[in-house]
Design a protein that fits this description.
alpha+beta; 173 residues
């Protein structure tokens, strides 16, 4: 397993829609394992393939936060939301591609998602709470959408300027 570099906004690859995966291959499984390791190391609760420069419809997530609870890593190939609740929830979202910046985003409180697992089997599950927010956030990445796209323009511009500055600082090191 290898740690992958996470792209920092603004990067044009983060705004491009990802291509559907046509086949679950050993390389795709290895990418999913590397993405999970990268996500845990960051630390984060979700990561989409475009965030590591791979424009394919693959996300990983693990929203288990309770101390001592067993992790529940999920890898989703070609995930799609098949149902959303009328009820909404608001979370203060962050993103590994937009470090140390947060914003309140309203999304459906519950969603049902269908995807392929790493063996090529179709899986469907209903998510609520943090899991629902996270899976929607990661699927947005596959469509070239960032959580800051839900924020007011001024706030979005301020965060983008901070990221440009952060990238300049990191480039000097």
């Amino acid at each position: 397993m290898a740690l992958l570099d996470i792209l920092i906004h603004p990067d044009p690859r983060l705004k491009k829609p990802a291509a559907p995966v046509t086949e679950v291959t050993p390389e795709l499984r290895r990418l999913a394992d590397d993405m999970l390791q990268t996500m845990y190391d960051a630390p984060g609760i979700g990561l989409a393939a475009p965030q590591v420069g791979v424009l394919q419809r693959l996300i990983v997530l693990d929203c288990v936060k309770e101390e001592g609870a067993a992790p529940r890593p999920l890898a989703m190939v070609n995930p799609e939301v098949t149902w959303t609740s009328e009820a909404k929830s608001v979370y203060d979202e962050g993103c590994l591609s937009i470090p140390d910046q947060y914003g309140e985003v309203e999304r459906p409180a519950e969603v049902e998602v269908r995807w392929l697992d790493l063996h090529g089997a179709t899986v469907s599950e209903r998510f609520s709470g943090l899991w629902a927010t996270c899976v929607q956030h990661e699927i947005d990445h596959l469509d070239g959408k960032l959580f800051i796209d839900y924020l007011k323009p001024l706030r979005r511009q301020m965060i983008t300027r901070k990221m440009v500055k952060l990238k300049r600082e990191r480039a000097r090191v």
